[in-house]
Amino acid sequence: MLSKYVVFPKPNVVEVKTEELKTDGLGPKEVLIRNEASIISPGTELATLAGKEIGVQFPKRPGYGSIGKILAKGNEINDFEVGDRVFYTGYHASLQRFTHEQGHQWGHLFPVPQDLDPVEAALGCMVEISMTAPNFTELRIGDSVVVYGLGIVGMLAALMYKIKGAHVIAADPVQKRCDLALSLGIDEVISCPPDQQVEEVMKRTGGQGARYTVDAVGHSAIIRTCVKTTAPMGEILLLGSPRAPLAGDINEIMWDVHLNGKSIRGMHMFRYPVKSGRGVKMDVEWAFATAFDLIQKKRIDAQKLISHLILPGDVPATYTGLRENLNEYFCTVIDWRNEE
């Protein structure tokens, strides 16, 4: 069967190609999936495209979160049937073979409600990633949270902090993203250059800082801003994966952390085990089920959050837009349904 797929043949080059995919001889834990939609993760995939992601080698087939239906399955897969709609960490491709129950959370299939639109469902993995910080934050109703960065992860985290009852301030230099946050119900937004954010946050928190601050970008300069704007005994939550180098002396922020009893906590999604068990409060299966429920009930409005629904031929231009045009490109889903 023919499969169309996206590939980075070398740094900063994006191509869409077609190959003949062998579909017989599936392994015991292997499935053949016809993709319906896949979401682009700007942070991870742009870093990969630029050759900045750790361990990246070219040519590289990108991918992040895919929604598709099982066409065939191996004889040891008992928890899914042919025809089921699933989420999996697939490549951006129309057709793919995938091995279920690998030794990490990205190596599993997760069920998707059959009546959930697959384009909206594609947002589910970003919701699952973004809820890590809100889930591990011991909030009181009305606690102040500042989320730095209103890309898709920051926007979703801000919305889920709001769902949990926090007073949420969101900061981003892109005005259009701040406008979207307000339209979605975020309490306050700060649209100013990064070097003005500390002053503005301290002004809005009465000079005390916020109880919780979140780096949703993955930049060490923002971590420094988080420390400066966190109240004594508060928490700094690292939701983004830091990639950009930052030169300087860290003694200033470490002294602040030490003197004022602040905590810095990593919030990578790998905090969750894949499956539930005795004493496990949160797991990946639960997180995906919760994410899809939030989308179905419109508590997370996928239609408002997905800025671009594109066809495979639009992919190369879209990566350029995600890198260079932050006012217009925010959250992009590739529609594979016409590639059968």
From TrEMBL:
It comes from the Bacteria. Its cofactor is Zn(2+). GO terms for molecular function: metal ion binding; oxidoreductase activity. It holds the Pfam family ADH_zinc_N. This is 2-desacetyl-2-hydroxyethyl bacteriochlorophyllide A dehydrogenase. InterPro entries: ADH-like_C (IPR013149), ADH-like_N (IPR013154), GroES-like_sf (IPR011032), NAD(P)-bd_dom_sf (IPR036291). Belongs to the zinc-containing alcohol dehydrogenase family.
